[in-house]
Structures are given as structure tokens and as C-alpha cells.
Amino acid sequence: MHTNWRVFPIALMAAALLAPCALAAADDDVHRERREQLVESLTRSGFFGLGRQAIEDETVLDAMRAVERHRFVQLAHVPRAYEDTPLPIGHGQTISQPYIVAFMTELLQVEEDDVVLEIGAGSGYQAAVLAEIVDHVYTIEIIEPLGRQCAERMEELDYGNVTVSVGDGYYGWEEHAPFDAIIVTAAASHIPPPLVEQLKPGGRMVIPVGPPFGGQNLMVVEKDEEGTVTQRSVMPVRFVPLTRGEANGDGDGA
Ligand code: SAH
Q1: Distance between CA atoms of 205 and 190, rounded to whole angstroms?
Q2: Nearest-CA neighbor of 69 among 80, 55, 59?
Q3: How far apart are CA 154 and CA 133, in angstroms?
Q4: Where are the domains of the chain?
Q5: Res 24: pLDDT
Q6: Which residues sit opposite 205 in a β-bridge?
Q7: Is there a contact between 179 and 117 (Cβ–Cβ < 8 Å)?
Q8: From atom 22 of ligand 1, which residue's Cα is the shortest distance away?
Q9: Fewest CB atoms within 10 A around its CB: which of 58, 103, 169, 179?
């Protein structure tokens, strides 16, 4: 066969340039398929209707389909990104289990015009899921390097409707209050009064309450149009603790 030696290097170069793109595309397909399987599993309840409740809200399921969880975990955990499990994100913290993220989002009953406050930005995954649905998400993280990384990730992934701040979320974010909904993704010993204060009449808050590392309950706090606040416990959960004090940069490193 006659080889055109002038075309050959160009073809070789083109192949070398395109191969990584093809690999990346194949990789995206694999992630999409795994994500689809994960979302499908969220729509199933526990065996014989026992155990966990199925996620039924299509808006929530679509948001779970849209957010690329593998971009919110450390490189070493990418192969496990679509398992229904929490994963370490450094500094002793975790990205929440997808089922819990979907369940809490469903409980919030948010709509497209809503402005939401999240306490405990962590990886930014829960904020991204909410950002697929609502108008704006304000999220606060107490561990500075995590907050910084989260803000960078939001920019990289084009979540222009998420604003990240570093600080103690116990006090909420007065400047942008009141909020249609508030979600707390770390377990508090009690419901922080400033957060109840910053909830709009007709709004709701979802928050895990209980001692660090055990005996916690997921609570839904509702404020009606007259400003009357009611609360109910929804299910037992296990979250990292809501810590208090100045924003800090310590921890065991990413
Ligand atoms: N929503 C996160 C879950 C992160 S785990 C995600 O989707 O990845 C909870 C996070 O809450 C941790 O990153 C922890 O540092 C943070 N946190 C704990 N106490 C806090 C506080 N008082 N204010 C703000 N963030 C807090």
C-alpha cells in the first residue's frame, strides 16, 4: 500500500489530539449511565414498602439527573460517585448520600422563583441540585478551604445562581433574608433561632437535629403566613455535626 508520508504525520497528530476527546466522551457516557441507574434506584421504595420512601417529585429527579456528582468528589472517589453513599471530601467532612440529598430537596418543596439558603456548603453538591430548580442558592461553609473550593467549582461548572460564603451558618445570612426555604446539611443540637427568623412566612426549613454522630432526626420546620412556627420529625438520620464559632481553616487536609 502506498503511504502518503506528507499526510501520515498530520493524520497521526489528529488521532493523538482526538483520542483524549473520544475517551472523555466515552467517560461522560459511562457517568451518565451510572447517574441514570442511581436516579432510577431513588424512585424505588424499600422492600415491600418498608424502609425508605421512594422519591417521586419529577423536578427533583430531573435535578438529580442533571448534576454530575463525579465532579463534586475527590479524584480517588470518582469511581464511587454514583453509589448511593456519602463520600469523604477532606477536612473530616462528607458529600451527602444522593438519596438524602433528593429526600431533603423533595421535603423543601421549592419552586423556580425561590431563593434558598443552605448551611453547610461542603462540596456544593446539594447546592447544585437546588440550583437546578430554584432562582438562587446562598450557601455558607465554615471550613475556609472547603468554601473556597466550593466557590471555584461552582464557577467552573457554570452555576451562576449559587453564591458561596465562608462563615458560621448558625446566624444565617441576614443580608439576603428572608428565604423561601432553608436547608441545613449538618446536625445541630437545636434549631437555630436566627434561621427561623430568616424564614419567609409560608416558608420551610429542613434540618437534622440531635447529638453529634448519632440519634439525630430530620426535622421540617414550617412558618405559616401568620408567622406561626411548627415542626415535625421525619426520619432518623446521621450527619456530621454543625460546628460553631469563627470560620476556620483547620482540619486534616483534603
Ligand atoms: N451539603 C454538602 C454536605 C457537606 S457536610 C454537600 O452536598 O457536599 C456538612 C458541611 O457543613 C461540612 O462541610 C461542614 O464543614 C459544614 N458546617 C458545619 N458547621 C457549619 C456551620 N456552623 N456553618 C457553616 N457550615 C458548617
Answers
A1: 13
A2: 80
A3: 15
A4: 58-237
A5: 65
A6: 182, 221
A7: yes
A8: 168
A9: 58
Query: Could you read off the pLDDT of 29-54 as tens digits, one per residue?
Result: 899 999 999 999 999 987 665 678 99
> Which parts of the chain sit beneath pLDDT 50?
247-254
Amino acid (one-letter) located at 110: V
Q: Are strands 136-141 and 115-119 parallel, antiparallel or unpaired?
A: parallel
The whole-number pLDDT of residue 248 equals 46
Q: Which residues contact 99 (CB under 8 A, 6 or more apart)?
A: 42, 52, 55, 84
Determine the Cα–Cα distance for residues 53 and 197; give it in Å rounded to an integer: 30
CATH architecture of 58-237: 3-Layer(aba) Sandwich (3.40)
Of ligand 1's listed atoms, the one at least distance from the Cα of 94 is 5
pTM: 0.89
Confirm whether 189 is a catalytic residue. Answer: no
Out of 96, 123, 165, 233, the active site residue is 96
